[in-house]
């Protein structure tokens, strides 16, 4: 007879014991439920010790996971053994002792962090100024960053304010608000009257800043050096990469007065620039004109000296000839003089003692040669009785 055939004692044939339940659908007891759980876990673990096997497997997996750590390329790992610094891990995959024996704190060392702030303070000339600044930094030593100070970021904020105050407070308002070159250089001094020629003017020479004036870049560098020195003395493990002044201006209460001062300074600078432009235009022209006059005077001087020297030499030669033959020399000089005079005169006068005067047309006398004049004189002499 099959086990599932109807009949008496069917519960004895049911392998799952469903028909063994007492009448009235009474739930199984606690002992029976524990027995079933023990049987199932025994089958899973391969015996009565299966629970301990599962616990051991879970514990082993947790130890393996807890003993491995991965450090990103932007991080540095700091290993703590029972809360005390043990070693530093570079980026990559590493093994360590499982927690809570060893733990790893990961610190971002390549990320650029920023701190902004604003201070209102007195300058060295007792003027009020408002400075907004920005500090960029990163972690250079993870061990010092974690253990040297309680809050390194707050320490940097306070040190940055102190550095800005120390640098800005050591300078005047004009040195902070203006940059080198705002003050004009003096105009070149004129040449003395006794000099032969004026000195050439240098074209567009850059104006030099007054002594002790620092531009904004120098002030920012001074603030960065002071801040880094303070952080190094505190062993914060931070490296400052940049300090910049975002806004440097007087407070709103006195801004109108400072705007008037700046407008006056700009007007002054504009006038100075125009004066420099006018000087650069006029002085080279005057220098060139003076050089031209001096060169012309030198040429006239040389010409007159040469003419006077030539006249003196000619006179000496005539004197020598006159001493040798006075009569001949006087006659030759008289003839040369009359020739020169008659060549420029439109009228020719007979000087031979005759009574006739030959009137030549205007302008003709200047074209007659000396030979024609002499022949005219001879013809007049022949006609006389």
Account of the 3D structure:
By secondary structure, the protein is of the alpha+beta class. Among the domains are: 112-184 and 213-250, 2-Layer Sandwich (Tetrahydropterin Synthase, Chain A), CATH 3.30.479; 325-383, no CATH class. 48% of the residues lie in helices and 16% in strands. It contains ten helices and eight strands. The protein has helices spanning 10-13, 30-45, 50-66, 142-147, 152-168, 173-177, 216-234, 255-324, 326-343, 370-383, and strands at 68-71, 75-81, 84-89, 92-95, 102-108, 113-122, 128-139, 238-249. The strands form three sheets. Strands 3-2-5 form a three-stranded antiparallel beta sheet, with no helix packed on it. It has a three-stranded antiparallel beta sheet with strand order 6-7-8. The chain has a two-stranded antiparallel ribbon with strand order 1-4. Helix 2 crosses helix 3, helix 5 (152-168) packs across helix 7 and helix 8 (255-324) packs across helix 9. The longest helix has 70 residues, at 255-324.
